[in-house]
Amino acid sequence: KGFGTYYLLPGGGIEKGEEPIEAAVRELREELNLDLERKDLTYVARFYLPKTRYYIYKAELKKELSELELNEGSDMKLFPRKEIIKSKNVWLPVRLSFLFYFNRIKT
């Protein structure tokens, strides 16, 4: 009786002495082979759950989608923003951050 299939954003833990934005840069490099810097990321949202904090950042993709390499995890799918907001298979904090961010700022 698991939770079924659901989608998250790429991410991982924050190492000792690391700031959340530095962890995001490192995790994107490790998981998708994206070479980004702090200045490339825009803060979107953060969520606090018991013993866990989630930080969500946005970045402009500088590579073609076909160049992304999934180095960690078992599956990656790309979705239009509207589908992310509506889908029951996308983790609720991710859906809410998309709803909040993209209704607040025109991109």
In a few lines, what is going on in this structure?
It contains 3 helices and 2 strands.
Produce the secondary structure layout.
Layout: H1 20-32, E1 41-49, E2 52-59, H2 81-86, H3 92-104
Antiparallel strand pairs: 1-2
Q: How would you classify the helix and strand content by structural class?
A: alpha+beta
Low-confidence parts: none
Percent range for β-strand residues? 15-25%
Q: What helical percentage do the residues reach?
A: 25-40%
For the biggest sheet, the summary is: 2 strands, antiparallel
Please tally the β strands and state the result. Answer: 2
How does this model look, in words?
With 107 residues, the protein is α+β, with helices and mostly antiparallel strands. Helix content is 30%, strand content 16%. It contains three helices and two strands. Strands 1-2 form a two-stranded antiparallel sheet. The protein is globular. The protein starts with 19 loop residues before the first helix and ends with a helix. 8% of the residues are buried. The mean pLDDT is 78.
